[in-house]
Amino acid sequence: MKVAIIGTGYVGLPTGIGLSELGNQVVCIDKIEEKIASLQKGIATIYEDGMEDLFQRNLASGRLSFTTDMKAGVSGADVVMIAVGTPPHPVTKEADLKYIRAAAEELAQYLDGYTVVATKSTVPVGTGDDVEAIIRRVNPEADCDVVSLPEFLREGFAVHDFFNPDRIVIGANTEKAKNVLLELYRPFAGKTEFLLVSRKSSETIKYASNAFLAMKIHYINEMADFCEKAGADIREVAKGMGLDSRIGGKFLNPGPGYGGSCFPKDTNAMAQMGKKYGAHLSLIETTIAQNDARKVQMAQRVTEMTGGKPDVRIAVLGLAFKGGTDDCRDSPAMQILQEILKEHSNVCVYDPKAMDNAKTMLGTAVDYAANAEQACEKADIAVILTEWEEFKQLDLAKLRLIMNKPLILDLRNMLDASAVRENGFVYSCIGKR
Ligand code: UGA
């Protein structure tokens, strides 16, 4: 099939690469010329585990191409996917649909032959109706159906998730559109659940899923705080809970609060939608407020451990919003770091993948290290903020020698508490006293 994907970010690019690997002719469209020029040259603009080989292979085969030219990309496509950003509105926190609307306005002019226009971006309930209205207004002759096709890819694991989906949700209001998408996703038939629902249900499924996962994280974080006070161990508690198949063991890792470009944005947008429709979403509202407050509480732990001295040297390990990605947008690590910087100015940071992104956000406010050990040199405390596997391999004996004071605050529960203490450290983690 011929597929056009508008937007080459964390959703559009892995989706485009995945669909080309399945044998489709895919053209990815973006307005940013440097991005497209880089992708055309075979230089990936985001980091995703396992993406590089697939990207190079499909680019070389000619199944995958990139353009800034909407007309060339959309003309003759069987499916056009809209995968542009839906950032939160700075004031209302609702999802801002200006990029979606602009994409619909533009693509509508170039539709020829029957086309399925699918929104991949996370969009508020009813957006499909808006997109359809725009297309009909701009091009009353267009032969197309607008469907909701939510994506459930996790950043950092997008390639894995693309090829191993838990479900494929198709929110189409016509049989014809359903059949086109069933054909596109046929390689997954028999391997995953296909859910054919109305467009509005599909749009809601995406928000309801992300909000539920955010709530699950908030729940385990609160339970972790309880364990610290009551003398229980959150790791044991989470394991015991997760073995109940009704609860499930995933997303029960306590930490510094959830972040990233999806959960904070989507929980806020869902809460706003609740208000709009007069359906108060109290659990989601509480989750948002408590998750925000958690970042401040986490920074206070640094101050408590260092005795409130402003001149201490702090090593921050991890800046990305989670392990496996270079993305620092709405990263809990960055938010906690900003809190730390209100009290302390002597901070050295390291992240295995996110240094470039972090530098554009932090400038000269911190020192930058080439590796974790270098960040810890002469530090009074090491604070782990992102769950990178390499932090599990830290040479604790060496760290003890190069650090000024033996303090480790592990907000991702990465380290083996007894090994850390055996090496002479005072160790604090989440959910265990
Ligand atoms: C999330 C969803 O997991 C995807 O299914 C969805 O497609 C995506 O949003 C999206 O809407 O595009 P993502 O934002 O990449 O994916 O990140 P997650 O892996 O879900 O992690 C989000 C945050 O929760 C991170 O800060 C992470 O550290 C935190 N988290 C996650 C925890 O604190 N504990 C956990 O057990 C799991």
Key phrases:
14 strands; 6-stranded parallel β-sheet; binds uridine-5'-diphosphate-glucuronic acid; 433 residues; 17 helices; alpha/beta; 44% helix
β-strand amount = 5-15%
Q: List the total number of helices.
A: 17
Fraction of residues in H or I helices:
40-55%
Could you report the average pLDDT, rounded to the nearest whole number? Answer: 96
**Structural Rg:** 23 Å
Low-confidence stretches: none
Strand order of the largest sheet: 3-2-1-4-5-6
Number of E strands: 14
- Described by the principal axes of the CA atoms, the overall outline is globular
The computed structural class is: alpha/beta
Quote the distance from N terminus to C terminus: 57 Å
Bound molecules: uridine-5'-diphosphate-glucuronic acid
Biggest sheet layout:
6 strands, parallel
Q: Would you kindly provide a written description of the structure presented here, covering whatever features stand out?
A:
With 433 residues, the chain is of the alpha/beta class. It contains 17 helices and 14 strands. The chain has helices at residues 12-21, 33-40, 51-61, 70-74, 98-108, 127-138, 158-163, 175-184, 199-230, 234-242, 263-276, 282-305, 332-343, 355-362, 372-376, 396-402, 417-422; strands at 2-6, 25-29, 64-67, 79-82, 115-119, 144-148, 167-171, 193-197, 314-317, 347-350, 367-368, 381-384, 407-410, 426-429. A six-stranded parallel beta sheet has the order 3-2-1-4-5-6, with helices on both faces. Uridine-5'-diphosphate-glucuronic acid binds next to helix 9.
